[in-house]
Design goal:
Shape: globular
Number of strands: 22
Distance between the termini: 10 Å
Number of domains: 2
Low-confidence stretches: none
């Protein structure tokens, strides 16, 4: 599957985004372990999140799917059943890493498998601390999936400092902590997205946050049971980022994205884009348990910056979008501390470098980052020339590379092609429909 992209015109109007992927994963996991029925609205029915849903169905959790909501009939902390075969999680690294933690506390064995891409993702980062807790878990293929999980005598109280900033590793250990024989403490130097902390509190789990010696400490007290809860999932900020970019770089654009999650641990991209000169405003801010707002974007002339490496963990998924924004800024943008990009669905530093080269952008790549020389587009001129070269881009099967490159190619001087884009459905199943809604010609 590939995408055909034609040059685009100004983006106007108000649009809704699909539900947040990170929150959707966690809502199913917590609801399955709760006592009673939980109603989830706004669940993202993309392949990744459906992999999580199907995994819990396979372990005996009844889940009713309706048009606008999902009802999960929780079985309690000890109510999961042994699956009758291996659990296949497709391309979803989030599913595999988070589920590994809670499966280490079960009385049955399980095997987690993924597709070709997921089977190359590093899992030692969870296997090592889980083993220290007392879990009986092993990886294969040099620390990659499949993961074999067998019952352990007990999971121990545990204190662990994350060697890399990773919300997935943190969340894996928090889920394992539900089955520990005492408190579990995870320490992080740089705060990562805190959806698991907020979700645990929503389901009645005692989570406290402390600061000690420059570290943020997340304390999880193992519960006797979890309360059912109703969850309203806001629009996914990472999905919204593609249209934030499209509006910023397309002359005459004035676009509003409705009801988007603005969790402070997720929206570093907005902070960075504003620093670059972007005209972005928030309105209708609300805060149920996850904050959300409408985001309005106007086409803007941007300036290059040196990115603060401390912001990288909270915009790691949006860095490809930032690369394109930097490509059209005045001057140079310097990005370091982004080596984690090499461990995603593709090596995103290499994949995006390939896209930039084909688009005609000058850059210099490093092991942990990139310098991008902007083309200095004057987007406030309605008849400004298209800044990018029409291209035939390989997305390397990576949904974020595919969608970022597609948005970039709407500013190319002719029709472009993006290869290997089937995995777009893993995170953003209605991407093409929303492109059509705002007037972009991507098919």
């Amino acid at each position: 599957m590939g995408l055909i992209v034609k040059p685009g015109k100004a983006l106007k109007g108000e649009i809704l985004m699909p539900g947040d992927k990170s929150i959707s994963h966690r809502s199913i996991m917590c609801a399955a372990l709760a006592e009673g029925d939980s109603v989830i609205r706004g669940f993202l029915k993309g392949e990744d999140c459906l992999a999580t849903l199907n995994a819990f169905s396979k372990m005996g959790v009844n889940i009713d799917q309706h048009d606008k909501e999902i009802v999960v009939h929780g079985v309690g902390l000890q109510g999961l059943k042994k699956p009758d075969s291996d659990i296949y999680l497709g391309n979803s690294g989030t599913s595999m890493r988070l589920m590994s933690g809670l499966l280490c506390g079960q009385s049955f064995s399980s095997t987690l498998k993924g597709d070709v891409s997921l089977s190359t993702r590093p899992m030692k980062r969870i296997v090592t601390p889980l083993t220290t807790m007392g879990a009986n878990i092993s990886s294969s293929n040099g620390g990659c999936p499949p993961l074999e999980i067998n019952p352990s005598e007990k999971l121990k109280a545990f204190s662990y400092e994350l060697p890399i900033a990773s919300a997935q590793v943190k969340s894996c250990l928090m889920f394992a902590g539900l089955y520990a024989d005492g408190p579990v403490v995870i320490k992080e130097k740089i705060q990562t997205r805190d959806h698991t902390e907020l979700m645990f509190k929503k389901f009645g789990i005692h989570v406290s946050i402390e600061e000690s010696k420059g570290l943020k400490e997340i304390h999880v007290l193992p519960p006797k049971s979890m309360d059912a809860a109703n969850i309203n999932i806001p629009g996914d900020f990472s999905s919204a980022a593609f249209f934030v970019l499209a509006a910023l770089i397309t002359p005459g654009s004035d676009l509003t994205l409705m009801n988007i999650g603005i969790n402070k641990t997720r929206i570093a991209l907005l902070e960075v884009l504003k620093e670059m000169g972007a005209d972005i405003k928030l309105s209708n801010v609300s805060n149920e348990y996850e904050p959300c707002a409408d985001i309005s974007i106007r086409a803007s002339e941007l300036k290059g910056i040196t990115l603060n490496p401390k912001l990288v963990p909270n915009l790691i998924d949006e860095l490809p979008v930032l690369f394109i924004a930097a490509s059209l800024a005045e001057g140079q943008t310097i990005i370091r501390g982004a080596e984690e990009l090499r461990e995603k669905e593709s090596d995103r530093l290499e994949a995006m470098s390939n896209s930039l080269k084909l688009l005609g952008v000058k850059f210099k790549i490093y092991d942990d980052g990139i310098d991008i020389q902007g083309l200095n587009q004057e987007v406030n001129t309605s008849n400004s020339d298209m800044p990018f070269e029409a291209s035939h881009i390989n997305s390397f099967g990576d949904h974020r590379i595919a969608m970022t490159s597609a948005i970039a190619c709407t500013r190319a001087n002719d029709k472009s092609y993006i290869e290997d884009t089937k995995n777009v459905t893993t995170s953003f199943p209605n991407f093409l429909e929303i492109c059509e809604e705002v007037g972009l010609d991507i098919k």
